[in-house]
Amino acid sequence: MLCELRPWRMEDATELQKILNNKKILDNLRDGIPYPYTLADAKAFIQSMSEAEPDSTYAFAITADGRLAGSIGAFRKENIHSRTAEIGYYIAEKDWGRGIGSDAVKRLCRYLFQNTDLLRIFAEPFAYNQASCRILEKAGFALEGVLRKNAVKNGKILDMKMYSIVRE
After folding, report:
1. 74 three-state secondary structure
2. Is the dihedral of CA 34, 38, 44, 45 positive or negative?
3. Domain locations in the chain as residue ranges
4. Are strands 156-166 and 4-6 parallel, antiparallel or unpaired?
5. What is the DSSP secondary-structure string of 17-42?
6. pLDDT profile of the chain (168 residues), mean per 10
7. Class level of CATH domain 4-122
8. How far apart are CA 4 and CA 96, in angstroms?
9. Which letter, b or e, does each residue of 6-39 get, where b requires 16 or more Cβ atoms within 10 Å of its Cβ?
């Protein structure tokens, strides 16, 4: 077992701040996460996850070796896509290359397919982010295609890749 998923705890805030106060991580995430990332930001995130709608937001702390190693969540879509969720994750830089990301993705998908009515889980990493693409592939996700010029991040127009896994 490489990692465990558990609910967020307020005592995770200090380590979460350290993990996310890293441009290498933030450059691969969606906008909206402040930099520098403060302790108040970490506490606000943990509070918002504890108050989130339980059947639409599935957010967990990733732990490894008894300590915080990252974050993972799936977010249910609406309307005709109500049985689809988008997954997102990040791993602390010191834990890169250890297999924690793919283990966490596998664990979350297994949990969601066993405990919810979700049929499809998808992810949209930046096309250049080979590490994230590899995490998804190792977790059983299929590449569906490239979303050309799909995002603007740090002033650059970027392609993204569309990956998914479906309930068998």
Report:
1. strand
2. positive
3. 4-122
4. unpaired
5. HHHHS-HHHHTTS-TTS-SSPPHHHH
6. 93 98 95 95 97 95 97 98 98 96 98 98 98 97 98 97 96
7. alpha beta
8. 16
9. eebeeebbebbbbbbbbeebbeebeeeeeeebee
Q: Are 138 and 156 in contact (CB under 8 A)?
A: no
- Amino acid letter for position 10: M
SS3 49: helix
Encoded tokens for 135: 């995490």
Q: Is 102:139 a contact under the CB 8 Å cutoff?
A: yes
- Give the list of residues 6+ apart from residue 11 with CB closer than 8 angstroms, or none: none
Q: Express each pLDDT in 124-140 by its tens digit.
A: 999 999 999 999 999 99
Q: Which amino acid is at 53?
A: E
Q: Please give the model's pTM, rounded to 2 decimal places.
A: 0.95
Given a contact cutoff of 8 angstroms between Cβ atoms, the answer to whether 3 and 103 are in contact is: yes
